[in-house]
Write a structure and sequence with these properties.
Layout lengths: L7 H23 L7 E2 L5 E4 L2 E2 L11 H4 L7 H14 L5 H9 L12 H4 L9 H17 L1 H7 L4 H5 L9 H4 L8 H16 L4 H17 L5 H18 L3 H19 L8 H8 L7
Antiparallel strand pairs: 1-2, 2-3
Helix pairs in contact: 4-11, 6-10, 6-13, 10-11, 10-12, 11-12
Length: about 290
């Protein structure tokens, strides 16, 4: 007995399956690939003008909300208040002016901030890999602090004491940006560690400069001391994670070579390093 044929509508639907599947696959293969990151004039990849893309993918950025305790309260908060009051005595001094210099993270202004500790001038023409290391690692350190900043929304000291900051032009923005932990300190700590890795013979000077860089945020009246302490921790966490990134390691190796060449060529810092050292000897938290 001959088998019954499937109804015509069912046969039509079965015939359409490979056609529809083929069309779907063709659509997927035709989907445009995401555009490559734009390169700035200095060759650093950017998400938008002036905003470098770091080395770390999103999932690899250290999580400050998971890693840090909540901002201090009780006696620990009272210590923050005492240190803030002591730092206010430095307003109007050369140390306060240095804090304003340390607040600038835009390039090219930020490039030579660690030059005296490094003993070599950092610029795009002669040390492009070092320049790239600083710009890209800045983005990684900054991102590492965001979750805790956004979660705790700790008010900054100038909102409590109503005293001036070293960067009055930034106060409107900082008033709505969480104080805990300090992003500038995370960046400065990371820079000191990265540069010490590239030039280990200058590690003591570089690490001391990184410490002073963070203390500048207290002098500037935009961070509490505990913000700075935990900012250092996030800078170290970011440095540890960067060791597994091939692009970071490639730039680090290139920076080692070019810094050694620049040192041999006598490319010394183009600023008064003795004056900077004297200013940075002033304790950010006197007493």
């Amino acid at each position: 007995m001959p088998s019954a044929s499937a109804p015509a509508p069912a046969r039509s639907r079965r015939a359409l399956v490979p056609v529809l599947l083929g069309a779907a696959l063709a659509a997927c293969s035709a989907r445009p690939t995401p555009p490559a990151p734009a390169l700035a004039a200095d060759g650093v990849p950017e998400s938008r003008p002036g905003w470098a893309i770091g080395y770390l993918p999103d999932a690899a950025v250290p999580d400050s909300l998971a890693l840090l305790p909540p901002p201090p309260s009780g006696e620990a908060a009272a210590l923050d208040q005492a240190r803030m009051q002591a730092a206010l005595a430095l307003h109007g001094t050369p140390r306060f002016a240095q804090a304003a210099v340390d607040a600038e993270l835009q390039f090219p202004q930020a490039a030579p901030l660690f030059a005296c500790a490094l003993g070599v001038e950092i610029d795009l023409q002669h040390t492009p890999a070092t320049w790239r290391l600083l710009r890209r690692s800045l983005a990684d350190a900054s991102r590492s602090t965001r979750k805790a900043k956004d979660h705790y929304k700790r008010p900054r000291p100038f909102l409590a004491n109503h005293a001036p900051t070293c960067t009055p032009q930034d106060e409107a923005r900082l008033a709505h940006s969480g104080s805990y932990p300090s992003g500038h300190t995370a960046i400065g700590t990371l820079w000191s560690l990265v540069l010490a890795q590239a030039a280990p013979g200058h590690s003591d000077a570089l690490l001391a400069r990184g410490r002073a860089f963070g203390e500048s945020r207290v002098v500037c009246n935009v961070h509490w001391t505990s913000d700075v302490v935990e900012g250092r921790f996030m800078g170290m966490a970011t440095f540890a994670r960067l060791q597994a990134e091939p692009a970071f390691q490639a730039d680090l190796a290139a920076a080692r070579r070019e810094l050694a060449a620049a040192r041999a060529a006598g490319r010394v810092p183009q600023r008064d390093c003795a004056a900077e050292a004297a200013v940075l000897q002033v304790a950010a938290n006197p007493g």
